[in-house]
Amino acid sequence: MNHTITPSDRLDATFAALSDPTRRAILVRLAKGEASVMDLAKPFSMSQPAISKHLRVLEKAGLVSRGRSAQRRPRHIVAKPLAEASDWLENYRKIWEDNFQQLDLLLEELKSKSPGKEI
């Protein structure tokens, strides 16, 4: 079976992975540098297997990769999926910004037509 991952699939996986606070905290930690599962589990009150499950979700979304250094399997953050999600959100930020600018223009127009009144 040939399953091609579309940009929409990647975006779905990224946002699904980011929906959990533990996974977001893991990404914050990995943004500072690579870390082992043991290192990543330290600040949380959960087991290493639980952290490993979160890491599998992050790896499946392409947000984290696993390296190999002797017996260690350090995890690294992968920025590309986050950049794609940021680009997707940026399009909506521009729409909202345009809407606010139109609202500002409307308010200024109303103020000029009704000087001295609160709008």
Automatic annotation (TrEMBL):
<dbReference type="InterPro" id="IPR011991">
    <property type="entry name" value="ArsR-like_HTH"/>
</dbReference>
<feature type="domain" description="HTH arsR-type">
    <location>
        <begin position="3"/>
        <end position="97"/>
    </location>
</feature>
<protein>
    <submittedName>
        <fullName>Transcriptional regulator</fullName>
    </submittedName>
</protein>
<dbReference type="InterPro" id="IPR001845">
    <property type="entry name" value="HTH_ArsR_DNA-bd_dom"/>
</dbReference>
<dbReference type="InterPro" id="IPR036390">
    <property type="entry name" value="WH_DNA-bd_sf"/>
</dbReference>
<dbReference type="Pfam" id="PF01022">
    <property type="entry name" value="HTH_5"/>
</dbReference>
<dbReference type="InterPro" id="IPR036388">
    <property type="entry name" value="WH-like_DNA-bd_sf"/>
</dbReference>
